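Purpose: get a first structural picture of the assembly so the mutagenesis plan has something to point at.
Setup: two entries, given in the order below. No constraints added.
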Amino acid sequence: GAGVSQTPSNKVTEKGKYVELRCDPISGHTALYWYRQSLGQGPEFLIYFQGTGAADDSGLPNDRFFAVRPEGSVSTLKIQRTERGDSAVYLCASSLRGGSRNEQFFGPGTRLTVL
Amino acid sequence: AQSVTQLGSHVSVSEGALVLLRCNYSSSVPPYLFWYVQYPNQGLQLLLKYTSAATLVKGINGFEAEFKKSETSFHLTKPSAHMSDAAEYFCAVSTTSGTYKYIFGTGTRLKVLA
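Result (structure tokens, whole complex):
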């Protein structure tokens, strides 16, 4: 079956621009996570959705970052006024129910480069 | 708060030799622990997980890990390394309430020498 997909796979933008990163979770998965992986680091949690609502956005670094999941499936991570420090791989993951025993399935990521 | 420490950002082994990748965790409550592998330009793939059942967990590709509460460790092993095992490996701990988000270690890059 189809796994988690993310588009675009690569995004190059200029400092100050707005970007949107999309995540298509596995069908039927109610829990969706966004992580950010900087070079040489492990993924860091950004935000968690259970259904349509953001249940935990404590990992978002500042108010330039925002994410939505309006219909409880596809999610979009939005970054305003991008900065060079936002350059990283943004990973999306989904799981069946969100409980800690439920494995998270990761997408291939979107590599964001801010020039 | 929970955290994960992976000792050794780079590990090199000869093909056929034992693989040992170290992971220590910190958690105030019984954790759930995971090992993921990441091949170049690919997403994270689950190798194995500990969810409070058996302390010795067997995963895919011949990997296994043992949960040792007394040592707060969850080291990953494989008896005989294969060239295809060359990748980056991440240990993660899951929160056991609320969001169940993962806290990842910084990763260990495994190099397999012919």
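Chain A touches chain B at residues 3-4, 31, 33, 35, 40-45, 48, 55-56, 59, 91, 93, 95, 98-109 (CB under 8 Å).
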